[in-house]
User: Fold these one by one.
Assistant:
Number 1:
Amino acid sequence: MSITSLLPGALGFGTAPLGNMFRAIPDEEAAATVEAAWEHGIRYFDTAPFYGAGLVEIRLGEVLAAHPRDAFVLSTKVGRVILDEVEDPSARDLGEKGGLFAHGRPNKIVDDYTADATLRSVEDSLKRLRTDRLDIVWVHDVAQDFHGDEWLAVYETARTGAFRVLQGLRDEGVIKGWGLGVNRVEPLELTLDLDEPKPDAFLLAGRYTLLDHERALQRLLPAAAAQNVDIVVGGPYSSGVLAGGQHFEYQQAPPSVIAKVERIKALAAEHGVSIKAAALQFSLAHPATAAVIPGATRPSRIAEDVAALGETVPQAFWAALREEGLIAEHAPVPTV
């Protein structure tokens, strides 16, 4: 139950921003960004029907169709079905993530974690992605941030529906791995306690970053490592605020977060470290982490990510972060 041997490297590409997350991105710019990832050697691409109501899967499929299918690893998600019926994207009820993908396609998005919907979602994704197979499938957003007080009921539907379908597809060799893709640690902790079904990995977004990692360190990451369940870290830049953006948790960053980012940036500058290198290398330092998948909407950002991964970060920098209480005392850091 590990996807380490499946993943082509520690750096993948998280495509959510290409769903017009914060702005309307021209098709040409989105395609150029995916091509830039390919040209820089990235061979793992993660997407989801939710991203722009199918927009990212369509965009990604158009680019990747020109490349050999055996040359890359592809993951998408289930839990939401995209309909031909249209709705107002800005009026969707998305829990704490209101307004997300307001510039995406107007196709109606329906939450459905049942077995039948899971199979339909997989088939629809294959069509949009213009491919004959998926490598990894994540069960998307079965957590508090989207479902509020009802999240446990939604989780139970997924456990008896999507979880079992995906495990069956994996056991049949239709997919190579499955797990959950969420922004909260609680559903992952719950899943690790199940006798069955057993996931291969988790995609955890925003919860193992320089800005937010304490909760994940307490139980989730040690338990995942003990059970050989890999963690793919999504959102390593905390929705962009760590990389010069203004968003945290997909919303406008609050003053307290901005102040913390400024303290980290000041120490990074003092030690000659780029903030992207600090963010990516911190997330990858934990033994449970298999890969990190930052997103981007411009081709130039990809080169920055690749360079950041290879940058040498002095131990004095990590020591300074600990001394100022900016990272947890027991958080693993890279060794030079």
Number 2:
Amino acid sequence: MTRLPAIPIVDVPDAGMARVVEAAAAACTAGQPVTLAVVLETEGSTYARAGTLVLFGEHTHVGWLSGGCLEPEIERMARECATSGRIGWMEIDTRDDSALFSGNAVGCRGCQRLLLLPLSALPGVAVVLQGWLRGEGPMRLDVDAGGGVRIGSAEVAVDQRLPSDCCGFDAPQGLWSLRWTPPPRALMLGAGPEVAALWPTLRGLGWQVRVAEPRATWRARSPVEVEPLAASTALANAPAVPDVVLVMHHNFELDLQALEALAPCPVPFIGLLGPTRRRDDLFSLLPDAARHALQPRLHAPVGLDLGGRGPDAIALSIAAQLQSWRHDVAAPA
């Protein structure tokens, strides 16, 4: 694309977009015509923020730009873009009083400006998306009002000019730049009963999640994909250092082995399932160096005290703590 004067990049530290990007990469790899809707900027009160991504295709709809009231019209235009290979633009403005009582009234007083990007018109974009999902680096999108597009992650980029509809709204110097940090990574050591609820919750919040379990009987019970690995091997095979490791074998010896393997690893958040007494018993068997290495990063018992008992309540408490930690939100007193 033609390089225009530099403008500030809109950083998207956490848009929870991993599922959308996964679906987009799979559709592109399969040769399916899909369009990626990108929120370029917003004003006022809106359901989505700058950097939100939604994928539309013939039989595909992943993500949301509203509570559902705006999607039909966006989807119609997105399909037209996928078919024609043209860039589309949309401005959805509900700041006027009359918008409160229109046919698709949302009750919000805000404005969203969208880019409709036909991914099938960008050969090689699946490689960019897959690199971002693997955590190889941030993904950056530069687009200008004339149809110039550059999307890249790490050392891979697609740079192309596409036919474009007329952009009906202004941008500083006619250029937008957005950058998404890679999705956070969680490794669950142990396929206990909490995994059934915790795995889809974290995935829905944008995490990349792996589960490792060395016991065949526990793997057979799990409703999600589980790698047949012990803790040390799972950590060694990780494509990148996980942001979070959850030790949840429901087995004292396996949890002890996991803590020993985690001590030298620079994982910033380590969660241990079970009561305080169990944690103390495990720590009493660890070498001093391992205890000192683990202590600043260990959350035990893991999870916020939300009340309730059983696997679903525990999964909810863990997901809430990870969401709070990820966004640097202080825990309630």
Number 3:
Amino acid sequence: MSRKQPGGDDELLARLGSLTAQARERAEFQRSQVELAIALQRGMLPGDLPSAPGFDVAVQYAPACHGLNVGGDWYDAFRLSDGRIGLSIGDVQGHNTEAAAFMGQVRVGLRALASVTGDPGELLARTNDLILSLGSDLFATCTFMRLDPATGVLESARAGHIPCVWASADGKSGIAEDEGGPPLGIMAGTRYPVTRHHLTTGGVFLLLTDGVVEGPAMDVDDGLDQVVRLAGVAVGAGLSAGSLAAAVIKGAEGVGHEDDAAVLVVRHGAPTVPFR
């Protein structure tokens, strides 16, 4: 027959209580870190998008908030000094508060350097050098486009980011074939080639982050094909940029990801079906 030590139960209960309190403190700290990162993300993303006659620009963004998976995806659209419109989208390595803060630095850096040069390739090269000068271990993928509303010409440069998707009013759609270069913050002196596209009346271009098209339930090729089909259907139905962006984010639920998901859509021509 075993004999209990005096005070043994009280000591065990005290230890369990201490462990429970520590677990509760860690959970509260983790939750506060997630809330801080989400607040950083939302505070650093633009509230308004630029407009131009004949063009419709819209965005949809779904931040990751599973556990500590708070990422560093961003989007941006702003007027350049020459009247053209700059469009950027990107993804910072990592899923924490540091990634969210670094995302803000990259986005602000792009905007600041765009006042010096609006050429997409030169802008990414300068931003790459700026990131390297910060001495951070993080890196970012990015696509930057410059839209000329007067001609519908889109000039694009890509830094390790997934390609854009397009669709035109003649029923064609596909994945943009930009050459691209390595992510920002990897290698000094990198040059990023520029590809020219023509956005015709009724057509759309979609800038995406990988959370839209890649996850445990879907590989990136299938995810991109899904967005290509959505874009083709939306253009054929005359949907607005906002409606297409919402449909793309809805479709992203099927990839099974725990990452941020962002889509930036630019459409040429007034939609026949408005966004509601």
